């Protein structure tokens, strides 16, 4: 079943290395038959959070927020790609997430983390897990961590280790299972 799975990327650094990972994930999900738009805060230029999307009058929200609200409302799940900044979630990702709330409800999230070191950003992933739970899009049990991001992809944006794709296949199947299950349940109604 084709799913809509936006890939939300969280870095706006000039020399960001995780963008290759985010692009590869979006491409891989599309190759699996899904609609997987890459939401890049560097391209979207969201304002710093002043008011959430729902706090604007219907026609007064900035166009970028209206566009994302429409996309998120059609989403079956979300893939969140986070680096690890000082053992935490990048501010651009937190800002991207905090503009919305109800648009996330009853949709699973899948956390992809990365870092320059050997732990693959798992400390940020654990913080992000608490955040997405509060936003109403609980994370699937698995986390897809990519250590040493600077060496993980070649200049063409392809993984340098074949295990990257093998591990992602299992991760994607888990996300698909949760997204399909929650999509079916949303069609029957939600608890409140």
TrEMBL record:
GO molecular function: FMN binding; oxidoreductase activity
Entries under PANTHER family matching the protein: CHROMATE REDUCTASE, NAD(P)H-DEPENDENT FMN REDUCTASE LOT6
Protein's UniProt name: FMN reductase
CC terms in the record's Gene Ontology section: cytosol
UniProt-listed InterPro entries: Flavoprotein-like_sf (IPR029039), FMN_Rdtase-like_dom (IPR005025), NAD(P)H-dep_reductase (IPR050712)
Entry-linked SUPFAM superfamilies: Flavoproteins (SSF52218)
Chain ranges passing through the membrane: none
Residue ranges of domain NADPH-dependent FMN reductase-like in the record: 7-148
